C-alpha cells in the first residue's frame, strides 16, 4: 500500500470517528437556545443550576428523550422585579426542572397526555408541582396553577429532544403560591358607583326627614294657636 493510500485511509478514519462522536453526543440544549439569541436568561439559569449539564448527559442515555419548554427573555421581563433573585438555589433548580418533561412530546401528542403531567421538578400532587395541559387543534396551553402559558414555535425537534418556546415562565405552585402578577388590575380598578338601591334609599330618607320636619312645624303652630285661645 502506498503512502498516499495510507494517508487517505487515515483521513477517512478520522472523519468517521468525528462523525461517530458527534452523533453520540446528541443535541446540546445550550447551543439550541443560544442560536436565536432571545433566551439569555433561561440559558443562564440552565447553566447556573446545572440542569443543562444534567440534561445533555442524560440525552445520550435516555430511551424516551426529553421535552423542554423555553421562556424567552420577554417572558422573564414580565415577572415582578426580583422574582428570580429572591429564590434559593434549590428553588431555582426546581423552577428550571419544572420546564422539562422526561419524554419527547410532539405537537399532536399533547392531547394524549394525562393531567397532571409529571415534570423533572417532581411531585405532581395538589399544591406541589402540578402541570396541566389543554390542547385544541394546534394550540396548546400549560397551566401551573399560577400562570397560563401558550406553546409557541418549535425550536428543535428530533427523536431525543424537542424544545418549544413558551410565552410565560412556568411558575410552579409549590414555590409561587403567593405570587402576585406585575400587572395587578385590582389596584387600577375604578371606584364602583353606589348601587341603585342605595341611591333610592338615600333619597327616600332625605324626603322622609323633610316631611317629618314639616309636620313638627305644623304641630308647634297648632299648639301655639290653641294656647293663645
Offer a concise description of the structure.
The protein is of the alpha+beta class and 229 residues long.
Write a structural description.
This protein has nine helices and six strands. The chain has helices at 3-25, 29-34, 40-49, 51-59, 73-77, 89-97, 173-176, 185-188, 196-228, and strands spanning 66-71, 100-101, 132-136, 139-143, 148-157, 161-166. It is of the alpha+beta class and 229 residues long. Helix 3 crosses helix 6 (89-97). Mean pLDDT is 78; it is low at 11-23 and 184-229. The chain has a domain at 29-175: FAS1 domain, CATH 2.30.180. The radius of gyration is 34 Å and the shape is globular. May be a cell surface adhesion protein. This is FAS1 domain-containing protein. Keywords: Cell membrane, Glycoprotein, GPI-anchor, Lipoprotein, Membrane, Proteoglycan, Signal.
Throw out a few tags for this protein.
six-stranded mixed beta sheet, single chain, alpha+beta, globular, disordered C terminus, 45% helix, 229 residues
Layout of strands and helices, then pairs:
Elements lengths: L2 H23 L3 H6 L5 H10 L1 H9 L6 E6 L1 H5 L11 H9 L2 E2 L30 E5 L2 E5 L4 E10 L3 E6 L6 H4 L8 H4 L7 H33 L1
Parallel strand pairs: 1-6
Antiparallel strand pairs: 1-2, 3-4, 4-5, 5-6
Helix pairs in contact: 3-6
